[in-house]
Amino acid sequence: MIRTASLIVLPFLLIACSGDPEEEVATADLEGTEAPNTNPLIEQYDHALVVVNANGLGPKGEDMLRFGAGREEVDSAIETAFGSAPETSRNEECGAGPMEFSEYGPLQIAYMDGEFRGWFLREGRGVVTTDGVHPGTTTLQGLKLERQVRELDTTLPGEFEYTAADYGTITGFADDGETVTALQAGISCFFR
Fold first, then answer.
1. CA atoms within 13 A on the CB side of 90
2. Segments making up each domain of the chain, as ranges
3. What is the pTM of this model?
4. DSSP label at 14?
5. Cα–Cα distance, 104 to 58 (Å, whole number)
């Protein structure tokens, strides 16, 4: 008897839970990394030229360039956004292997074997995360109210990581334990 009742109720539950397919698509676009880099959290930083997330970066209002993209494509897009050529450097002694870097103001982009592998963001103008986190203005306490934050016990002072809006992980630093001073995603050249 219970088995028969379950079989009768199951189709009604599936219909009730299915929802409007157009609504689901709109939600996926807001949560996914493929949506253009515009939302109210970013727009409050009218000086933002570039937006970063746990999976890559891109000029504000354009599609994201994901980790693994070619250096020429990434540097070209970010150079256009900033309106100036990057400062470049190389470090042979990174834990992951030799890395090259392009630096645009507060943003450092890391490359390995000609491919985009990570970014590091310090306090400064021109760059914000897709969740509106901005080093120098975001507090660690404020971030804890908005996101899942885990403080890390490493040799780097104030290191933490948080789950971003795109469900990826971004590492951060709050040297004084209060203000977020830097953010990082992807491969880095930190020695812990």
1. 6
2. 2-31, 40-186
3. 0.76
4. H
5. 13
In one-letter notation, the amino acid at residue 97 is: G
CATH 3.30.1330 applies to domain 40-186: no
If you ran DSSP here, which 8-state letter would residue 49 be given? -
**Structure token digits, residue 63:** 């599609």
Write the CA distances from 143 to 23, 146, 174, 182, integer angstroms: 28, 5, 11, 13
Beta bridge partners of 101: 89, 110
- Contact predicate 150/158, CB 8 Å: no
User: What are the backbone angles phi and psi of residue 115, rounded to the nearest 5°?
Assistant: -120, 145
Distance between terminal CA atoms of the chain?
62
What are the angstrom distances between the C-alpha of 20 and each of 14, 23, 27?
A: 13, 5, 11
pLDDT in tens, the chain (192 residues): 444 444 444 444 434 444 444 433 333 343 444 444 445 555 555 578 999 999 999 999 899 999 999 999 999 999 999 999 999 999 999 989 999 999 999 999 999 999 999 999 999 999 999 888 999 999 999 999 999 999 998 888 899 999 998 889 999 999 888 999 999 999 988 765
What are residue 39's phi and psi, to 5 degrees?
Answer: -165, 165
Going by C-alpha positions, the residue among 127, 129, 132 that lies closest to residue 106 is 127
